[in-house]
Design brief:
By secondary structure, the protein is of the alpha/beta class. It contains ten helices and twelve strands. Strand 1, helix 1 and strand 2 form a beta-alpha-beta unit. The protein starts with 5 loop residues before the first strand and ends with a helix. It binds NADP nicotinamide-adenine-dinucleotide phosphate (NAP).
Length: 304
């Protein structure tokens, strides 16, 4: 490989994809693909996309992420979240490229009382989780040079996410009812992309040894945990500068009072011990990452 690898970012316009574009900008030749250029639900288009790009690294930040809508569109969710990653893995293996893929805490049923580890039994409660699990399994079956990072509750300055939704609702409403019995680690897209960049750099430098030493499935989340209600309160405290002086009242409610088409796990906390031991990488605490994302939003507002 030349000193500047060819990096194909799939799902480049999504919230993680945008941050991957930033974090890998100085590392190689970036080729961005998104819905405008490829429909990942069509296998031939996925294969053609990779063959034309001829990448050394594939960063797959694309996914069907509409968790509730997936209940009524299981075929599309499965095509994008399972069949497309399988083709990416096959194409990566064919050319000895590295495939980086993201998965989710929703592969678990949330019944454990301590953080989930990579070897815990999966049992997705919804179609989205089942489709993401099928994607993990397909990549592992191909068994090339791959890294799967399971993450949770992704937020950031770009795209559609909980932080931006809360900021909008915070400006519009006097009070909000937010679920308080689901806990997890809000994880910033900035932190995810930076950690990915650091690990990929180490892998390509040979710092982590030969492929079998580092390839595999890892949990990658910000540290700490909080409920959705606690996260909302933190957003309103940390991001008051973006709320036009309004801070809404946040009322805790149980999941039973907020029915959704897709069931969600109660405990989404993932242990990052394997990631830390293997790569010496630790993401910041979620509230520090929240400050970082808020600062990015404030700065972009000032420069707009
Ligand atoms: N968001 C979370 O809270 C969360 C939690 C755990 C894990 N993850 C995982 O983290 C990764 C990144 O998620 P994210 O939050 O950055 O997702 P995102 O913002 O929804 O971005 C996903 C991207 O994939 C694109 N996409 C979806 N279907 C497509 C298709 N058929 N053809 C082409 N492009 C398509 C989307 O385009 P459109 O916008 O046009 O649909 C979007 O640009 C995913 O693997 C996700 O499963 C996310």
């Amino acid at each position: 490989m030349s000193n500047r690898p060819r990096i194909l970012i799939v799902g480049a316009a999504g919230q993680v994809g945008v941050e991957l574009q930033r974090s890998f900008a100085d590392y190689g030749e970036i080729i961005c693909r998104d819905r405008d250029t490829v429909d990942l639900a069509v296998p031939d288009q996925v294969r053609t996309m990779v063959r034309e790009a001829a990448p050394n690294i594939i960063l797959n930040a694309a996914a069907y992420t509409a968790v509730d809508r997936a209940e009524s569109e299981p075929d599309v969710a499965m095509a994008v979240n399972a069949q497309a990653p399988a083709i990416l893995a096959e194409e990566a293996l064919r050319t000895d490229a590295l495939l980086v893929h993201y998965s989710t805490d929703y592969v678990f049923d949330g019944s454990k009382t301590s953080p989930w580890v990579e070897t815990d039994k999966t049992n997705p409660l919804n179609v989205y989780g089942a489709s993401k699990l099928a994607g993990e399994e397909a990549i592992q079956k191909v068994a090339g040079k791959y890294l799967i990072f399971r993450t949770s509750w992704v937020f950031g300055p770009h795209g559609q996410n909980y932080l931006l939704t809360m900021l909008r609702l915070g400006r519009e409403r006097e009070s909000l009812n937010i679920v308080d019995d689901q806990i997890g680690a809000p994880t910033s897209s900035i932190e995810l992309a930076n950690a990915t960049r650091s690990i990929v750099g180490g892998v390509l430098d040979g710092r982590f040894g030969a492929t079998p030493n580092w390839a595999g499935l890892y949990h990658m989340t910000c540290s700490g945990s909080v409920s959705w209600c606690g996260f909302s309160r933190a957003i309103f405290t940390h991001a008051h500068a973006l709320l036009d002086g309004k801070i809404p009242l946040v009322n805790p409610i149980p999941t039973s009072e907020y029915p959704t088409p897709a069931k969600r796990p109660l405990n989404s906390c993932l242990s990052n011990e394997k990631l830390s031991l293997r790569f010496s990488v630790q993401l910041t605490p979620w509230d520090t990452a929240l400050d970082e994302a808020v600062l990015t939003l404030v700065l972009s507002r000032q420069s707009a």
